[in-house]
Each structure stands twice: as C-alpha cells, then as structure tokens.
Amino acid sequence: MTGTVAVNGEVRRLEDLRLQDFLQSFFFGAGFFETLLVEEGAPMFLARHLARLRESLGAHAGCVQPPPPDVLTPEAVREALSRCLEADAGLGPRFTGVAKLVAGDGRLLLSFSTPPQRAEEVILDTVEDRCYRRGDPTLNHKSVSYLRQYAHLGRGTVFVNEAGELCEVPNGNLFFLVGEAVVTPPLEAPCLPGIIRSVLLEAGRLGERPVVERTVHRTQVEDVRGCVLTNSVGLALAVPRLLGRELSGSHALAGQARAVVREYARRDV
Amino acid sequence: MTGTVAVNGEVRRLEDLRLQDFLQSFFFGAGFFETLLVEEGAPMFLARHLARLRESLGAHAGCVQPPPPDVLTPEAVREALSRCLEADAGLGPRFTGVAKLVAGDGRLLLSFSTPPQRAEEVILDTVEDRCYRRGDPTLNHKSVSYLRQYAHLGRGTVFVNEAGELCEVPNGNLFFLVGEAVVTPPLEAPCLPGIIRSVLLEAGRLGERPVVERTVHRTQVEDVRGCVLTNSVGLALAVPRLLGRELSGSHALAGQARAVVREYARRDV
Question: How close, in Å, is residue B192 to chain A by CA atoms?
C-alpha cells in the first residue's frame, strides 16, 4: 500500500491517520469496501462500485456509520483520486494499479496499491463446504468482516453451501460453461453482487451463448466445460482446472468475457 | 472507551495509535478479541480468555499475524493492565469496568471502557434464521469480523441455523431449562465457546440439575421453562421472555448461574 490516501476527499498521509477515527470498523468489522482497477489514472466502473457501496450502507443504516453523501459520488471520488495521484510522485496522474475504498466510521478512505502480478489463470481444487449458508444475506455485502474469505485467499478454494451448490471464491464470482449456456450462481447461493458479474449478466451473451443466473450443484461440475473467475482487478481469469477436472474451454471463455468487460468499461456504463 | 491503552504491554494513548499499524484487522477483519470484566482492578477469568485467544490465533496461523507469545500470558496482561490503571487517573487501580483485548497485526491491544449499565434481564423475541450454518467453524472464533453479530446487538435476536436449531445471541450463549436439565447448544450449532459457558459446563450442575450440551430446536421452545444469557460482562442474565413465551424460571436460574460463576471466579479457575 502506498502512503498517500484520501479521507472524505482530503488528501492525507497514511501514517497520519489515527486508529481512533476508525474504531467501529476495527473493533466490529462494521464497514464496507470496494477494490477498483485504475488504469492510466482512470478508475474502472467507479459509478457501479459506489452504487454497491451505498446499497450496503443503506442496508446497514443505524449500524455502520456512513460517510457524508457528498463524498460518495463518482465526481467526488474521481476528484479525490486525481488529487492523490498528483500529490504523490510514486503514483502520478497516469497511475495504473488498484484503488481501495473503505466506508465506515463516517469516513470514506481511499488508498492505493501497486498492480499485483497479473495472473492469467487460477486453479480451483479445494472445496470449503462448511460455512456458506444458502440465502445468507450478509454474504451479499462486501464488508471488512472479511476473515472467512481472507483465510482462503490464494488457496484455490470454492465455497459450497449446505445444499452442495457452488457459490463463489474468496476473491470473485464464478461463471461456468454448461451445455450451451454460461451460468453463474444466483445471489442467494450466496455470493457477492460482483461488478464484473453484473456487467456480464447485463451483456447477457458471451459469443453465441446466453449468460444466466442458475444454481450449479457440485455434482454438475462433470458437465462443466469451461470456467471463469471474475473480479474487479483481474476482470476475468481462466480456470483451467476446477475441482479435479481439466476444462479446455476456460481460456476462450475468459477471453470473451474480458472483451465484453473492456467494451463496457470503454463506454463507462 | 478511555484514552489509555496498552500495545504489546506498552502503555500508550489511544490517540497516538496509527491506523497503519492495524491494517490487517481494519481491512480484512483479520484479528480476534476478548471482552473481560474487570472488578476492583482484577480481570475475571483472564487465563481462560487468553487461552481462547491463543487457540483462535493458532487456528489461523499464516493468516492472522499473532502478537509475540510473551505478551499473551496472564502475567504479562495483568502487568500491562495494572500499568494502564495506574497511568490513568480516570481509571485508577480499583477500576471496575470492561477491558478489551484485540490480537492481530502482530499486536495485542488492551483498552478499557466504563461499566455498561448493568441489565438485569434481556427479552429475546426476534429470530434471525437466515445466516447461521450448522457446523460453521468460523463462528467458533470471536473475530473482529463481527458485523453479523454487531448488526443485531440490542435487538433481542436469537440466531437459528438451517435445521431450525437455536445457536446463540449476538453477545452471548444461551442456557435453557428443559425437563430436569439445563441445556446449552453444542459448539457445532454453531456458537462461540464462551468463557462463562465453559465455566457452567465444567461445573456440570445448577442446583440439582445437570448442565449439558444438547441441540435445542425452535419447536422445543414450548418446553423451555427458563432461559439464561451468558457472557463475560453480564455473566448470567435472565431471559424472562423467549420468542413470545413467558419463562417464570429464568430469574432463579440466572441467580444460580451467577453464584456458580462467582465461585469459580473467586477460586480463579
């Protein structure tokens, strides 16, 4: 993480921030976050990320203290981001990397990290089937109460609910090529309403195939011919192996997904 | 919360702590906490709290960065606590209130708050039956990824799993008088391995009745004649109404539970 941040739009140094101004998030995980890809100084899908953040804050009114509404607009965040990039020679106006927003304690914290090494593919060979509950609404919000996911990062884990249905991975949503459709689990699985997920569902097609929400049971993995992991930093990553099965269709599917995402990002919708 | 704290045994002012020293807890909820009752300067069941904290840290090695082992001993925490109480005239060596330990980011943070208004009883009339999953191991650890519980504090909520079994409340465990036994849900419900819960199970009896772990289905509430909520600050609170049923036996049961807890605390076991 880099040293220049913004708090409610004001450019600050990370080392000057006091823990006591973020205690509700720190003690109780009572905050929400967004991770955005920034390319050449431009944050991708910013309006969508902020809409999701506002929705989570609205669903937790009286529990999580929201930032002032005027700092949660795309214009305000774009302005704060620009000022941070200008203020820090290590970032600069053409910064490419990751921006993170954390909302809680009446504050919106914007921070930056340098681009992660971009993976081309991810192998998913581990099942965690003890902790996701079908219909759990808390897992529809990207809160800083994130330990369950954090503990599984980088371990190739797929979360499976008590009905044996695939839900998501710690850092993204899943899309499966099954039959002649591209299928992603419904929010009730549960999973996060991912930004890239919403773009692909809105697009409605990948090549000739429809993109639909549908339950995918773990026994159906044998019918899956391709799989893609989506998130806001990697966009769409091929999953060449899913729970022991080699999937020859993953790379092509990931390429199609990235193209759709890029097109939406270009139009900024 | 008061302004004097200790970090890894060193007395500090809360306002001097930097957010950047607690980022893993803040961003990812990757930390664990304990809430202790302090009476006349003495922390109740300190060794048990620290054993639980060490167990959670051990179960998350490589994910949550533990404090140095030497700050996690009862002697070290007692010493840090004494130094804080001496250093702060608002606390003082005879302080009675609540101490909180947070472990994560390689640090043990000790902080204090003044005694809450002590409730004598709690009414539990709300069911949240969408988010607890039977056997979920993550809910056996008191992590700062606490939003699910935090959002329900003070709302009289009982968490119920997908099998319709009662689990716990946001801030404590439950004991039920059913037949001639006092019954508490098993850890697999899931629930936290509460300190007061463990004391009552070890005691094994409340008056003439055995205390046992056993599944309690919500349909069995009609057989419940008394209910007690246990936690480390309130110790044992009567629940005179549980999901619409008036329970005449709750106050007597809570009194018995408190007496057992007090006896264990007096012997410091």
Answer: 15
